[in-house]
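# step 3/5: fold
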Amino acid sequence: MEKPSVQMRRIFWSWVIMLSIASLTVAPSAFAHIESGQAVGFITGLEHPWSGLDHVLAMIAVGLWGAQLGNPALWILPVIFPMVMALGAMMGLLGIPLPGIEIGIAFSAILLGAMVLGEVRLKIPVAALLVGIFAIFHGHAHGTELPAGQSGLLYSIGFVMATGVLHGIGITMGLIHRWPAGRLALRSAGAFIACMGCFFLWNAVV
């Protein structure tokens, strides 16, 4: 049986390879067949998740929590989040309203950070449901922020790929979980994310 750390590395590099192939496949065809103004949507989508600290911390927290839980959560959570996020983005692109977007995003950082801090071991369906609910808010925010004149499809592909990279960063950081000092460091990271979530929530309601 493979060690968990070996499995984590294989999953992470599988993500990297898949995202690299997807980017090489999508980008050239996009620029060849779509007007330049629209093709920029792919690059915009890649950049967008990195522009907000609330998004970055929540997505990294998903990877950290998955690393703490181990298989199968290690790969289920980072797959569920982008899939459901794409659904939320579609809602945003279609103009379907979703109340409390910023509050939902703030709560995602608070609760996901708390999960990492407490090393909470929920059942996989419950953990996936929790992650999926938060993904809708993040996706909707991405969808409503599509710049005018850019391709919604390419924009969505871009930010889903960027989200996968952020999950991969969280998983990689989570490799230190096998050491006592590493577990403490991850829990500290969870506390930081939860505290930042409280800050985001304060900004959202004030």
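# step 4/5: annotate
The CA atoms of residues 182 and 205 lie 35 Å apart.
# step 5/5: archive (pending)
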